[in-house]
Amino acid sequence: MPDPGMDGARAKLSALVISYNREAIVGTCLRALAFADEIVVVDKSSTDRTPEIAAGLADRVVQVPWSPSVEETRAMATDLCTHDWILFLDDDECLSPEAVRFIDAELRAPRADIYRLPLRHYILGVHDERAYYWPERHVRMFRRPALDFVPTVHGGIVQRSDRVFDIADDGGACIHHLSHQSVAQWIDKSNRYTSRPDRVRCEQEGSGIVRFAHARIDHWRERTKPSGPDEYPAALAVLRATYDLIDRLKGWEEEAGLDGAELFRAACARLDAAYASELADLARPRAGAGAVEAAPVQTAPTDAEAEALRQTVAALRATIAAQRAAVDAARMEADAARASEAEQRAHAAAMQAWAESARRQTADFEKLLADFAAHHDRDIAERTAETERLRVALAGAQQDAEAQRAHVAALNVDVAALNAHVVALLASTSWRISAPMRAIARMLGRR
């Protein structure tokens, strides 16, 4: 059965943005949401052109009183959305084109109730994948009632479904989070957030504030990919740790029971008493100013002066933009050079490992060849010795055979002579005459 609120094959989507004084970014943020069926902006009483810009790009803009964090506004803001699927962004978050296409396709066949998108943080205007914050995912889209919002700073999302989908961080679908332009802005926001009683606090690690400070710096440094000690990723690790330090110091302040305002009042009372008792003789009489004077009013510039000023400011902004572009280009070139150097180092290390492996294999082969040669030499020597022994034995056997042949030849001569003698004997007259006598002897012998 198709989901309720389907328009053709795609579920309808409400896009929600909470804004405050973000005129430089909110237009880009909202233009990325043009594919949504509804765009709702809740503005927290901005004093710049944010509401005006939002009114030209959103379906609805609602102003509410200012509060320090978005968590205190989200629950009310989602009630203004009319569709079950809600995509919620902060006013400094801009979807990538790949994220827009992913969400649009996903709403045609949702695989989950909650979606977590990769955030590419731009802190001090820079995103660096070596920094502690990459990769990082945040829940930014859900289907009601899979989420509840509570006012806890950095803990304001309560999941009611375990059907969660993490969007891959290598496909381009992400949120570009243009969060902090400067260190001052980071510290200002850190101060606002850590002043809220209902917030996620950084737990004490070990004992002692100093040890805690070192531990937090080490914690964020360990999450940072290798970089130089003065490079951006290392600086960001320290900057991130400052939030934890501010948060912990405010907790320590509460635990110590320090009330700086009351202590200042007591100090002023002590000093006033000392002035009255010890410096009365030096005090000069005063009639009092009577009224507060207004500072001289500056003459408004003429239209020509204002136009010249605007042109100067525009030229300065263009120069700054060009310088920033040049710095960004140089930074990109440096990053590319570092990446190339790292690749070359990795290649050199691989070649060195290959060469070491080849050296070991060569040494093993040479040892095997030496063993084979030694064994072959021993075998040749043994075979040569055996051949010589057999040659000597064969020579002796040949001599023996020659002697045997000579002996046989001599015997043959003797046998021939004997045969001739026997033939002569048988042919002799005496052998014929003695024949009767031999016959009588044989007969007597048989008896």
Architecture overview:
With 447 residues, this protein is α/β, with parallel strands linked by helices. The protein contains 11 helices and 13 strands. Among the domains are: 6-200, Spore Coat Polysaccharide Biosynthesis Protein SpsA, Chain A; 201-259. The protein has helices at 26-31, 50-55, 71-78, 97-106, 183-194, 209-222, 232-256, 260-278, 303-427, 429-433, 435-446; strands at 6-7, 10-11, 13-19, 38-43, 60-63, 85-90, 93-95, 114-123, 137-143, 147-149, 157-159, 164-166, 175-180. Strands 3, 4, 5, 6, 7, 8, 9, 12 and 13 form a 9-stranded mixed beta sheet that branches. Strands 1-2 form a two-stranded antiparallel sheet. A two-stranded antiparallel ribbon has the order 10-11.
Throw out a few tags for this protein.
alpha/beta, 447 residues, disordered N terminus, two-stranded antiparallel ribbon, 11 helices, Spore Coat Polysaccharide Biosynthesis Protein SpsA, Chain A, elongated
